[in-house]
Structures are given as structure tokens and as C-alpha cells.
């Protein structure tokens, strides 16, 4: 059973604070191991990759080579059920259309004085995409990371994916092919991150690395950050559902379980203005846990981190939601559209009773890589902007410099930077 | 003397690689000290701030209180020369106009199927701005960080600035006032970063921390990252000037020195297609070093990290520049406008002979907080986007869910996520 809170209880604030500050993640200290692996790849390149892949993934990558060949990819794709391919294609197309709208436009203009200013956007030339092996090998995640990169114009999108015992995951390869990934290597772990950052004889280095991974991958990304860019380090997933009593309790319960089945550290929170409805949802959860294949995981998540909060009104409910800053926010209420306007902090908002979060995980079109652990207070989900960068442009004509230059000279001298002052003054014969 | 390279030399590629991989920064290991300071502030709040400020800044902040009062700010501002105030105001106004154009627009739309999708932007509610004391206390940096935050709509912009021996820096306070900073505290170092991240009785916590600082501040920002957002950690500054022989060698030399005077670890690079002109610039640098107040710093930077590269044509020159990915790029050439189109990696581009980089440091309007150490290959300068975040919006009507939902069910089952599948299927009576 999840904890049950009522915003009108005397001790509510303290208990809500406890909920907010709950630590759901055990951080493993793998920094030293990872530092050693990165050093090996940095100094021994491909040789280190062969050895580490033998050690961790139990096969000799020398046999087929580090790179997964086009034939292997084509064969994998051919093995996939046409229905599944069609579903992946629908997802790919919808993600592509949505992310095309996120492409920023250059803005070059002259201001009132005639100074030319501008922002010019260019794609990052080469990006690496880490895809986990094993349980978390989700083709949907490949699409969510790779499609925006290609939409942004990344020329060289390089995927790494561990293939334990040398076994390929056809769905992951199919998603990569559909998304337009340019190169795929059968390596994983910190060694794959190191190869992307430093390059080897076989693998050219990239400038940014994105994608989820285990503690070793996360630590490796942190360690190479600076040399290359990285995306956010994702924590366990969470959903907050705001629901009135007009909902079917079973619908809301299964939405809470969809989050909970990801991970025992996932968190599902219900906020409702009706105590009886909230109780009905709790009961529905217990019923559903009897038939869900991942009931162990979902049940543990619900028991340890789940919460059901009743509120007197939606103003209170939304204020609490904004303090949680959930990764996913479902608004299953009559006035859902209006309520969107009051959302201040949320990674993604799912509006109305017919938009379960799971549709957004796959085929909605928006991205499912979203800020976790309350970071929606200060960051955004993955999107096209993560694969481009902006150069500012400034051009002064001589008369512009005469107009604004003296102020620069004044400020430079105040800051004690005489060469700065002179670089303007000399052009003005000052 | 800077090193001199010619792109036609046989060993050029190796020597250019050496230039690219030069380490200019000594990373101090202050993590343990910083962890202890953060712990003190986390557990003892204001008391810890008083003690640490007494220890590091040598005054008792209990006397006037941690917060710098409006009277203190007004008095400081009143002491400033009207010319300097006017220069700061011009800078503020120009930075504001430029950054207003960077405000992203919401994009809410219905796609061909009738699914409502969208991106909705909101400002980060509370942001902390670190301003260094001592040498690097630049009022221009206060404007460059604070103005975009206010343009973005940040409601609570909190500045921290150490005041060694209790002495205020009037210029920094004036810049803060002009930029609309809401609260200013007389604290610095890792303790100030900790106070912003965790909050104390006096200081409410913020959600993101920006601004430059020394090794302790940088380490503290890294340690609180995750709990709050942070901006990039800036390294030593650099400029790359592409100049033809039509330039006055003195103009180009002083631009190189303007970068070099920042820091002995700064880097100034000249690329020219004319060897005699390049030599004339080198000679001009030597002359100028005789009269510059910061000749010690600028001379050391030029000697240790400066470079003069001659090329046969601009195509080669631009290819080298894109590999360097300079923080600042000056195009002092006849066809500067055309050349902008070929720039792939640069934080800011200064176009034409009358746009010295220094004008952009103060009054151009674009931001001077820019990606250093070749990170322009994957990141952008500071801007309005750094103070907002995006929530994605998805709304399916029942018939939309009927159309795209089955593909979500298919993919969820492929990924072994049955509750995901059911949360869609149950709404479709599947």
C-alpha cells in the first residue's frame, strides 16, 4: 500500500516534505573502476575494447569486428513481425514530425543603430548514442534519442549497444535503422562511452554522448563530460496523476502501475479531490497487482514510494504537483485544458482521460526522455535543441563602433582590462 | 613569442594536434574541502555561513546581516561616476533587447489525426547567480548573467557575492540593480553555493545556479548539480582571429592581447594567409607588451599558448578554425559575411574589421558567457533559453487513441511492459 495523505491534515506539510525529500536511488560508487576502464580504452583503443567485451559480454568481438554490419542489421530487421515494424514506423514518423517543429530558426537582424546581431544554429557534427543491453533495451528509447538527432541534422550518429554473449537484439537494430543511425558498434559499459569520447582506430570520436545506462555508464558519462557533451543523467521514473471522481478507478490504477512496473525505485502519485475515489483506485491497484507480470516490481515501487493525496480543491492539488515537479503529469479531470495553464513544473503533460502516459512513451510524438527527480523545476526533456548549438554573431560598421564603442572603453577600464579598452579605442583613434 | 605554424609544413598536422590537445588548466583537487563546507551549511545553515565568512572573508556578517540592504545598494550606486552608469545602462539595454529575441514561443497544435501536441515554456522560478569577489568581479558579467534571467521571467533572482573584509564593490551592486536582481547576499565560496542549493533560515533555496567562480565554487556547483541545475563550468578564455593583410597589424595584435590579458592560461590564435602580415602582427604584439598594464599576464599567455598559423587559402583556415572551435572568432577579412556561412563551431563570431571582440564583451548585446576549451563543438553560450524549461503536452481524443493506441500496445508488449499496454488497451476495450 502506498502512503495516504490528506492536504487538510495538521501534519500534512511535514509528511509532504518527507515525500519530496525521499531518496529513491542508491548511488553506487563505481568511479574508480570506471576511471580504470576509461584509461584502458584511451591508451589501448580497440585492443582494450576486445578484452573488456570478452570479460563483460563473454564473446570475442574480433570475429565479426566491432561494427555491426549492414548485413547483420538487415537480417535482424527481416526477422521482425510486420505488425511490430509498422508500429515502430508509426512511432518514428510521429516523433519526427513533432521534433521537426522544434528546430530553431536563425535570427540575423540589424538593430536601430545598424549593428548587425544574430543567432546562428548548427547541428553537432557527431553524436554517440548509448543503448543498454539486457532488460532496459527498449527500441522506443532508440527512436526517442536518435530521431531528434537526425532531425537536428547530426551527420554522424553513432550507436553503441552491448550484445551479451554476442546475441543481437533485432528490435533495437530495427529502430536504429528506421531512425537513420549511421554506425552501430557491439560494445557497452564504460568502455563504450570511453571509445565514443576518445576514439579508437575503428571508432572515430564524437562530440556529445546521449542515452540511458547503468551506474557504470552514468559514471563514465560524468567522467568524460567536458571533453564531450552529455545529456542529463536520468534517475528512476515517476508519474503524478491528478484525477477527479468521474474517472474509472481501473484506468487510473493501471496508469499508476505502468510507471511502477519500470523499477522498484519508480514513483507513482495520485492526487484527487475525492477520498472515496482515491480509495477505489487503491483497491483497483491491489486487484491489478494480482495479474500483472511485473507485479513484484510494481508492487514494491507502490509500497515503498507510492502516494495517494486528497485535496479540497484543484488549486491546492496543482500547487502540490508543481512542488513535486513530476517527470510525467496526467490531468484526468473535467477542466484539463484550463489546468494545463497552471502547470509550472512538469516534464510532460498528458491531458484528459484518453491520454494515458503510455501512449506518450511510444507513439504520441513528443519525447519520452524527460527530467526525473524533480529536475523539471530547472530542465526540459530531450529534444531537437539538444543536438544543435548556437553561435552569436556581431557586426559593427565604423559608425556603429563610434556610437557604442566609447561605453565599452569606459567599462573595460573600470574592470582594469586595458588591452580590451585599446582594442576598441585604437579603431576610433581615441 | 607564440608558436608559429604553416599549414603547408610537412609536420603541420602533428603540431596542430599538439595545439588542440594542449592542457591549459591545472585542476585543483578541492572536492573533499568543498564537501565538508557544503555539509556544514546543509546542517547549520546561517550559523555556518557566519563562521565561514568570518574565516574566509574576515568579517562578522552578523553585524549587518547576510543580505545586502537596499540602502547599501543605493549608497553604492550613488557613488558611481555618471559616465560609468551611462555605459552600464547602455550595456544593460542592448543585452536586454538581444535576449528578448531569444525567448522561445509556445507551440501548441493539432496534427493531421487531431492529436493535440505542444511545447510550453515556463521560466525557472528561482535562480542563483554567483559573482566572484576580488579580481574577477566584473560588472559586465553580472549583466550578462542577470539580464537574460530576468528577460526569461525568473521571478526570484538571487545574487551572492563575497565581500572580503566586508567591503562592497559598488560597480557590481550597480550592475545588479540595473539588471533587476531581487536579493543580494554578502557570501561567497562553496558556502554560498551550498546556501543557494539547500537554503538556510535567511536564504530560500533556488533551482538553478549560474555564474563564474574559482576552483572551490566550480567544485561546489558540480557537487550540488542534480539537486539544482547549473550552467557550464567555464575554462580559460580564448580567441581565434582570422585576418588578411589589409588589416592594421596593431589592431589585430591588440585583439590578441585583449584575450591574453585575462589569464596566463588564456589562448590567442591568429590565422592569416600572409606570412609577412603575420610577422608584422607578432612584432606589434611585442611592442604593445611594453606598454600594457597587464603585460605579465598577457605575455605569459602569448608565450605559452599563443599561436600564429599561416595558410594558403581561407578554406584551410576555416577548416582549422572549426577544429579549434574557439570561444571567440574574429573574421577580419574582406569577405567576412561569406565566411560566416562556413563557420561550424564557434561560441561567438565577430564580423569585419570594426568588430573587435571586446565590444561584444560589453555593449554588443550578445552574451559574453561562451563555451570554452573547444566545447563550442557541442554547446552554446549563455542565453535566455538557459532560464526557461519546456513541458511537452499531449492530448488524445477517444478516436485518436483508437487510431494510434494499438501501436503503443504492440510496442509495450514487445518491451515486456504489460501495465503500459493495459493502460492504453483498457481505454480501447481491447
Task: Kindly summarize this structure in a few lines.
2 copies of one chain form a homodimer. Chain A is built from 16 helices and 14 strands.
Oligomer: homodimer
CATH architectural category of the largest domain in chain A: 3-Layer(aba) Sandwich
Shape of chain A: globular
What percentage of residues of chain A falls in helices of 4 or more residues? 40-55%
Question: Which structural class should the secondary elements of chain A be placed in?
Answer: alpha/beta
Binned strand content of chain A? 15-25%
Mean pLDDT across every amino acid position of chain A: 96
Number of helices of chain A: 16
Q: Give the N-to-C terminal Cα separation of chain A.
A: 76 Å
Question: How many strand segments of chain A?
Answer: 14
Radius of gyration of chain A from the CA trace?
A: 26 Å
Give, in order, the helices and strands of chain A: EHHHHEEEHEHEHEHEEHEHHEHEHEHEHH
CATH superfamily of the largest domain in chain A: Nitrogenase molybdenum iron protein domain
The fold-level CATH name of the largest domain in chain A is Rossmann fold
**Uncertain stretches of 5 or more adjacent residues of chain A:** none
Instruction: Specify the CATH class of the largest domain in chain A.
Output: Alpha Beta
Largest interface: A-B, 121 and 121 residues
How many structural domains can be distinguished in the coordinates of chain A?
A: 3
**Main sheet summary of chain A:** 6 strands, parallel
Spatial strand order of the main sheet of chain A: 1-11-10-9-12-13
Pfam families (chains A, B): Histidinol_dh
Catalytic activity (chains A, B): L-histidinol + 2 NAD(+) + H2O = L-histidine + 2 NADH + 3 H(+)
Family (chains A, B): Belongs to the histidinol dehydrogenase family.
Function (chains A, B): Catalyzes the sequential NAD-dependent oxidations of L-histidinol to L-histidinaldehyde and then to L-histidine.
Amino acid at each position: 500500500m502506498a502512503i495516504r495523505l490528506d492536504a487538510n491534515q495538521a501534519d500534512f506539510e511535514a509528511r509532504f516534505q518527507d515525500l519530496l525529500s525521499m531518496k529513491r536511488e542508491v548511488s553506487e560508487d563505481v568511479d574508480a573502476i570506471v576511471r580504470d576502464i576509461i584509461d584502458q580504452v584511451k591508451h589501448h583503443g580497440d585492443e582494450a575494447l576486445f578484452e573488456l567485451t570478452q570479460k563483460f559480454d563473454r564473446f570475442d568481438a574480433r570475429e565479426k569486428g566491432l561494427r555491426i554490419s549492414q548485413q547483420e542489421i538487415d537480417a535482424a530487421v527481416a526477422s521482425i513481425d510486420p505488425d511490430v515494424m509498422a508500429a515502430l514506423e508509426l512511432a518514428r514518423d510521429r516523433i519526427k514530425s513533432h521534433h521537426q517543429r522544434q528546430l530553431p530558426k536563425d535570427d540575423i537582424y540589424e538593430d536601430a543603430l545598424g549593428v548587425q546581431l544574430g543567432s546562428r544554429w548548427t547541428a553537432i557534427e557527431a553524436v554517440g548514442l548509448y543503448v543498454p543491453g539486457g532488460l532496459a533495451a527498449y527500441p522506443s528509447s532508440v527512436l526517442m534519442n536518435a530521431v531528434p538527432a537526425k532531425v537536428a541534422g547530426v551527420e554522424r550518429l553513432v550507436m553503441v549497444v552491448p550484445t551479451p554473449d554476442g546475441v543481437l537484439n533485432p528490435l533495437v537494430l530495427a529502430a536504429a535503422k528506421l531512425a537513420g543511425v549511421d554506425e552501430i558498434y557491439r560494445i557497452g559499459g564504460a568502455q563504450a562511452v570511453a571509445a565514443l569520447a576518445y576514439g579508437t582506430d575503428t571508432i572515430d570520436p564524437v562530440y556529445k554522448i546521449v542515452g540511458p545506462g547503468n551506474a557504470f555508464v552514468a559514471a563514465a558519462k560524468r567522467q568524460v563530460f567536458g571533453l564531450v557533451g552529455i545529456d542529463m543523467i536520468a534517475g528512476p521514473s515517476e508519474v503524478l496523476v491528478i484525477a477527479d471522481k468521474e474517472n474509472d478507478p481501473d484506468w487510473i490504477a493501471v496508469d499508476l502501475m505502468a510507471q511502477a512496473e519500470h523499477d522498484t525505485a519508480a514513483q507513482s502519485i495520485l492526487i484527487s479531490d475525492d477520498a472515496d475515489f482515491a480509495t477505489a483506485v487503491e483497491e483497483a491497484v491491489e486487484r491489478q497487482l494480482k495479474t500483472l507480470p511485473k507485479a513484484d516490481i510494481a508492487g514494491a515501487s507502490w509500497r515503498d514510494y507510492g502516494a495517494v493525496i486528497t485535496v479540497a480543491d484543484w488549486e491546492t492539488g496543482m500547487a502540490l504537483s508543481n512542488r513535486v515537479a513530476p517527470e510525467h503529469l496526467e490531468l484526468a479531470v473535467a477542466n484539463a485544458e484550463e489546468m494545463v495553464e497552471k502547470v509550472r513544473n512538469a516534464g510532460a503533460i498528458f491531458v484528459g482521460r484518453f491520454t494515458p502516459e503510455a501512449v506518450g512513451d511510444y507513439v504520441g510524438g513528443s519525447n519520452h526522455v524527460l527530467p526525473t527527480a524533480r529536475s523539471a523545476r530547472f530542465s526540459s526533456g530531450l529534444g531537437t535543441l539538444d543536438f544543435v548549438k548556437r553561435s552569436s554573431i556581431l557586426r559593427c560598421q565604423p559608425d556603429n563602433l563610434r556610437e557604442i564603442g566609447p561605453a565599452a572603453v569606459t567599462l573595460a577600464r573600470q574592470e582594469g582590462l586595458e588591452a580590451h579598452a585599446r582594442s576598441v579605442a585604437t579603431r576610433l583613434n581615441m
